[in-house]
From TrEMBL:
Domain of life where this protein originates: Bacteria
Similarity remark: Belongs to the isochorismatase family.
Keyword annotations of the record: Hydrolase, Metal-binding, Pyridine nucleotide biosynthesis
Protein name in UniProt: nicotinamidase
Length: 205
């Protein structure tokens, strides 16, 4: 499955805090970098997402006295997993992994900067209605098929793929270039949800 001239490599949250040694490290997270760099050579278009939280973000466990990371709370938009403080704006942890080599990257979508709501998806905040603007950008550019890679399979990759399908974009998730957190089976649940949404799941391209 080779990319065409109107296909996009969507690189999701390959940031220091999600890699080994980071504040919210995804197991083996940095191992996606070589695969992403290899694939990027074949794409004319590349978009990156970047978690970009202000200090004290409402999704941080530290903002909820008595709550521990990886527990949940109810927010106005629904259930929210609480995380360790991570990807704080301007911090080294929020920077992209230094091994990424994506010279054709055209756009960075920063998400999670609203202190009152988290944002997993490249397309919508976690209320599933507030847009990031990515859909409009892709449509105006005439770009229609997305290849999703990055971190984490069960959260930001999953919700990005589901929303891409909901918006009518053909969506391929390249699993070898994704890694998951896996909270209580969330990777298997995420893979099932992406497949149910109509995304094509492949091991590699």
């Amino acid at each position: 499955m080779k990319p065409g001239p109107n296909d996009v490599l969507l690189v999701i949250d390959v940031q220091n805090d999600f890699c080994p040694g980071g504040a919210l490290a995804v197991p083996d997270g940095d191992s996606v970098v070589p695969d992403i760099n290899r694939m990027a050579v074949d794409f004319a278009h590349c978009v990156l997402t970047q978690d970009w939280h202000p200090p004290g973000h409402s999704s941080f466990a530290s903002s909820h006295p008595g709550k521990a990371p990886f527990t949940t709370t109810t927010m106005p938009y629904g259930e929210q997993t609480l995380w360790p403080d991570h990807c704080i704006q301007g911090s080294p942890g929020a920077e992209f992994h230094p091994g990424l080599a994506l010279p054709r990257a055209e756009m960075i979508i920063r998400k999670g900067y609203n202190p009152a709501i988290d944002s997993y998806s490249a397309f919508f905040e976690n209320d599933r209605t507030t847009p990031t603007g990515l859909s409009g950008y892709l449509r105006e550019r005439g770009l229609g098929r997305l290849f999703c890679v990055g971190l984490a399979t069960d959260f930001c990759v999953r919700f990005s793929a589901e929303d891409a399908r909901r918006l009518g974009f053909e969506t391929i998730v390249v699993l070898d270039a994704c890694r998951g957190i896996d909270l209580g089976g969330s990777v298997a649940a995420g893979i099932a949800a992406m497949r149910e949404a109509g995304a094509t799941l492949v091991d590699r391209i």
